[in-house]
Design a protein that fits this description.
By secondary structure, the chain is an all-alpha fold. It has helices at about 1-55, 60-70, 85-115, 125-150, 160-190, 195-200, 205-230, 245-250, 260-290, 295-325, 335-355, 360-375, and strands at about 75-80, 155-160, 240. About 30% of the residues are buried. Pfam families: 7tm_4.
């Protein structure tokens, strides 16, 4: 009896000791399993991080990627305009509205006179009619939008609208460059080679010159617009101008604009340099031919026609070279605004006056158009 009790008492502690060991072993296995899972998770994260670093060029590239993700893209710009005070804004509104109406009215009157008057159906006036249409387009791209902002007191313009305005402005300005060159070539042929003028400046040649001018101007505008879309705009969005243009937008980019500035300078050199050289060459020959004319009346008429064209050329190319033919980022100033006013408002407004005041044929045609309108009313 005593021995059974002793044996039974010994078996109890031994059984409980075995259960304890089983629980300990099970706990160790669970800890090992958790550590293994954690290690696998760390390994997976390391692989993903390594792949991402390899994709973006190491840890610095990964930091740049993170910065790009956190960067807020500019979706609109604020055009500061010409003046800030409300009283001056009212004055600017009235002046620019009058200038717009005068410019559109004057250029459309010249265009109507050229279309109506058979005497003006010549290559020179064909190019002049195209120039008048371009002047109407050039001022319409910039001034009505500015007048609308002055009236509504809202100076914001979307990113897409800004690019659209820039594209059409450079399209029409580029077309002006080549059209003025074609007009100089026309004067060269008319004065220096009068016997073959009708052959060398036929209607087909006129259309080809205009079509090629549009093609080059379109390529120029599209190149600058696409190049601008490669820039990042993530910081300030206030444009110190009354319309969207390249030099002012370069100031707002948070990425390097060196290539864009070099492109603007190089293309500007071609767009302005080549036409200026051709125009100067043409007029050197024209001047030499005119000096050989014995008739005083003939000399006066030739110099009058060429003088009008040269005046427009000097105004247009002078302001254009000042605005675009410069390297390096310079702070936008009031001088740029003044040049912008000259390019978009004054030049288109002066062209009808320059060509009509110096040309009796245009004056007579304009008078007949106006009298015809009055008689109808």
């Amino acid at each position: 009896m005593t021995q059974e009790v002793i044996h039974g008492g010994a078996e109890g502690p031994v059984g409980s000791h075995q259960d304890h060991n089983a629980h300990v072993a099970q706990g160790i296995e669970q800890v090992d399993a958790k550590e293994e899972q954690e290690q696998q998770r760390v390994d997976v994260c390391s692989v993903h991080q390594a792949k991402e670093e390899e994709l973006w060029g190491g840890r610095e590239g990964l930091m740049d990627l993170e910065a790009r993700r956190n960067r807020t893209a500019v979706t609109e710009f604020i055009l500061l305009g010409l003046v800030e005070t409300e009283k001056l804004q009212s004055v600017v509104f009235v002046l620019f509205l009058i200038a717009y109406l005068v410019t559109v009215g004057g250029n459309l009157s010249i265009l109507a006179a050229i279309l109506v008057e058979p005497k003006l159906h010549t290559p020179m006036y064909f190019f002049l009619g195209n120039l008048s249409a371009l002047d109407v387009g050039c001022i319409t791209v910039t001034v009505p939008a500015m007048l609308s902002r002055l009236l509504s007191q809202k100076r914001r313009i979307s990113y897409e609208a800004c690019l659209t305005q820039l594209f059409f402005f450079h399209l029409l300005a580029g077309m002006d460059c080549f059209l003025l060159t074609a007009m100089a070539y026309d004067r060269f042929l008319a004065i220096c080679q009068p016997l073959t003028y009708s052959t060398h400046m036929s209607q087909a040649v006129q259309l080809i010159l205009v079509a090629v001018s549009w093609a080059f101007a379109f390529t120029n505008a599209l190149t600058h617009t696409i190049a601008l879309t490669t820039l990042n705009f993530c910081g300030p969005n206030e444009v110190n101008h009354f319309y969207c243009d390249l030099p002012q937008l370069f100031q707002l980019s948070c990425s390097s604009t060196q290539l864009n500035e070099l492109l603007l300078f190089a293309v500007g050199f071609i767009m302005a340099g080549a036409p200026v050289v051709l125009i100067i060459t043409s007029y050197i020959h024209v001047a030499a031919a005119v000096l050989q004319i014995h008739s005083v009346e003939g000399k006066k008429k030739a110099f009058s026609t060429c003088g009008s064209h040269l005046t427009v050329v000097c105004l247009f190319f002078g302001t254009g070279i000042f605005n675009y033919m410069r390297l390096g980022s310079e702070e936008a100033s009031d001088k740029d605004k003044g040049v912008g006013v000259f390019n978009t408002v004054i030049n288109p407004m002066l062209n009808p006056l320059i060509y009509s005041l110096r040309n009796p044929d245009v004056q007579g045609a304009l008078w007949r158009v106006l009298v015809g309108k009055q008689s109808l009313t």
